[in-house]
Structures are given as C-alpha cells and as structure tokens.
Amino acid sequence: MNDATLFGISTAWIIANVWSLLTALVVLAAGWFLAKIVSRQVATLLSQKLKRDVTIGPLVGQVIRYAVLFVTIIVVLGQFGVQTASILAVLGAAGLAVALALQGTLSNIAAGIMLLFLRPFNVGDYIDAEGTVGTVVEVGLFATILRTQEGVFLFAPNSKLSNARIINYTREPSRIVEMKFTVPRNADLARVRAALAEGLNSAHMPANAKPEVLVDTLGDSSVTLAVRVPVRSQDWTQARSDLQEKLRAILDDANGFVSAAA
C-alpha cells in the first residue's frame, strides 16, 4: 500500500466519520467544562453544609471531576462504535498494571482519604509534620498545599504527612506563652506576682484567663520564675512578642521586687 492509497483511505474515513468526530469534540468540551463546574459546585455545597468545612470539599470535588471526565471519555469512544464493555475490561487489566507501577501515587490517594477521615488538621491550621511546616491551604487528592510563615508555597505528598508525627499548633482554641526570668533570691515573690498579673494583661487572652507565675528553679543567689499566659492560638506569635515587651518593662523596675529586709 503506497502513500497515496493510505492518504485516500484516511481521507475517506474522516469524511465518513466527520459527524462522529464533531460530536466527540463537542462531548469532550462539554464534559471538560461540566467536570469543572460540577466539582466546584459540589465543593462549595459541602463547605456550606458541613458548617463551612473547607477541608473535605476540595477533595470530593476532585474525585467527582475525574469521574465525570472518565465517563466523558467512555461516551466519546462509544461514538466510534467501540464496545465500552471490552474497554472497561481492558482498563481493569491496565489499571492493575498501572497500580503496580504507581504505588507511590496510589499511596498518596489512600493517605489523602485517611487524612480526611482522621482529621489531624483542617484547612487554616498551622502544622509541623516532621519538618514540613506551614498553614494548610488545601488537602488535595494527591498532596496537601501549605503556605509557610514567609509566604512560600509548599507542596507536600499526602503519604509523607500521613506517616509523620503531626504537631497542630492551632487545633486547640488557646495556647500558652511561657517566659522565664530570674529575680534575686530575697525578692518579694508576692510583689512579683502582683506586678505581673497587672502588667501582663493582653487583648489576645481568652475571656477569664489569667497569667500564672511559677517557681521554676532555685539558685544560690537567684530564683528562676516561669510566667505562663494563655492566649488565643491564632494570635500566639503576636501575643508572645507583645508579652515579652511588657515583661521587659516590668523587669526594668526590678528594685520593686526586692523585699524590705534585703
């Protein structure tokens, strides 16, 4: 078969199937846009129904998007007379081979589902997963997107996060800011506590919360005290800076802590 004959056969096939080709293109375009719109609407609806939970929505939306695209491809192949039942059988066998070749990718999907089920963190939480540190932006089907304190984009595979020891700094409504300092051994601890209780009040503290002053260690000539102030978790960094400034100002008047017998 020469090139002219091959070209003639190809042209004849295109002319004979032009309607099927146009239909296939339309179905592909419609399926692509439909998958995008449906996945977005489902993600938004789930976020609204689940009390504004923005963690589960994007992941379910991605699953629906890939499902719609898969059905679209099956429909397109059906336009050309391809037996979809045989395709599904072939895809099943191919899927097994691909699964063996892409064990890492599939483990990310399984890990993403486990993260969604166990919920060690939600979107907006600040976490440390054995060196992977940042604020969770999105939990995807294959990976989790985070943003560091410096505003850097961080793409972490789900399998790495699911196998890591995760510290969630914002899971609880409040955290403790702890600061240590020393005073002379003969200092009046009652005056110290009174001054700190008055001076370390912060707008970042939860309602009815109070700082506590504990004796940490006793030295030969000094006493190390630990101040523990509960603050709202999302304000911890700023609250720590503010409280340290206040503590320094209070300690500048350290002579007032020395007892009269000193």
Which structural traits does this protein have?
rod-shaped, alpha+beta, SH3 type barrels, Helix Hairpins, 262 residues
SS elements, strand count? 8
Binned strand content: 15-25%
In total, the number of domains comes to 3
What distance separates the N and C termini? 112 Å
Q: What is the name of the CATH architecture of the largest domain?
A: Orthogonal Bundle
Number of helices, counting only DSSP H or I runs of 4 residues or more: 8
H and E string: HHHHHEEEEHEEHEEH
Structural class of the helix and strand makeup? alpha+beta
Approximately how much helix is present in the residues?
40-55%
Q: Order of strands in the sheet with the most strands?
A: 4-3-2-1-5
Shape: rod-shaped
**Low-confidence region ranges:** 4-9
Average of pLDDT = 77
> What is the CATH topology classification name of the largest domain?
Helix Hairpins
Largest sheet, strands/sense/barrel: 5 strands, antiparallel
CATH class of the largest domain: Mainly Alpha
What is the C-alpha radius of gyration, as a whole number of Å? 31 Å
